[in-house]
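Appendix C: a fully annotated inverse folding record. The material below is reproduced so that readers can follow the format used throughout the book. The structure is listed first as tokens, followed by the designed sequence.
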């Protein structure tokens, strides 16, 4: 049997593939645990700078495996949340490469990522209300922060999905590419990120993510410790030296 999560690491990039195409990549407990372990590896390995999450076949993810749910199985991993990701995403950048539907928990996985590259045939939705459920793995929390609140409200109450192009217009998606090219485009984006200094990448994500709720009169003070740690690092000196010497930098992650 094929593993439910395929994982590879190359050139500083971790690639995660949800691998249940026959079930539209619905999330099982086994898959959730595997994702959580992969995210731990991503954050714990200094040689990995970024990860890409995709789905096998023609669907990114259809959400929770409802048949497993009826059997009493939970796809929630303690400390990480649904799918081993939604409650506590990685410290390092994570890119979603979305082909086809990203629905229910599948959308919640996608919006837990920092960046989304979508095929032009992709769609996004939280249809939980149609099943007597709610999008409790971040759909009701993150969507209003990542798109206009009234649109998020409509999606939550009607259960109707939106197209990739609509998601791009609303700022939910970073890039739209032709069908079949989402993973390739996400990998290209990941390579652009992986070429940069790991400390600076992690700091940049941290400040952008956390500063949304910082008061204006405190935001510079709050970012100061993280920024200071980067500016006094060996990599900061290496970046400046490489620029002056017109050569590629050799990052040390310290």
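Designed amino acids, in order:
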């Amino acid at each position: 049997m094929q593993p439910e999560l395929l994982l590879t690491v190359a050139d500083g990039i971790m690639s995660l593939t949800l691998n249940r195409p026959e079930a539209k990549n619905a999330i099982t407990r086994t898959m959730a645990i595997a994702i959580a372990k992969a995210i731990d590896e991503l954050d714990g390995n200094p040689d990995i700078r970024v990860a890409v999450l995709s789905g096998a076949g023609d669907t990114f993810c259809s959400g929770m495996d409802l048949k497993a749910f009826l059997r009493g199985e939970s796809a929630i991993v303690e400390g990480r949340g649904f799918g081993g990701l939604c409650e506590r995403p990685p410290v390092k950048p994570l890119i979603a490469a979305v082909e086809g539907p990203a629905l229910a928990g599948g959308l919640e996985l996608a919006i837990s990522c920092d960046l989304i590259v979508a095929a032009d045939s992709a769609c996004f939705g939280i249809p939980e209300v149609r099943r007597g459920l709610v999008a409790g793995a971040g759909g009701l929390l993150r969507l209003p922060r990542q798109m206009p609140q009234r649109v998020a409200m409509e999606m939550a109450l009607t259960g109707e999905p939106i197209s990739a192009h609509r998601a791009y217009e609303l700022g939910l998606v970073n890039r739209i590419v032709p069908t079949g090219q989402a993973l390739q485009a996400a990998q290209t984006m990941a390579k652009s990120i992986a070429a940069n200094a790991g400390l600076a990448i992690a700091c940049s994500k941290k400040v952008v993510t956390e500063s949304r709720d910082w008061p204006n009169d405190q935001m510079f003070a709050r970012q100061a410790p993280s920024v200071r740690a980067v500016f006094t690092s060996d990599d900061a000196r290496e970046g400046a030296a490489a620029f002056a010497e017109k050569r590629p930098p050799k990052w040390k992650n310290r």
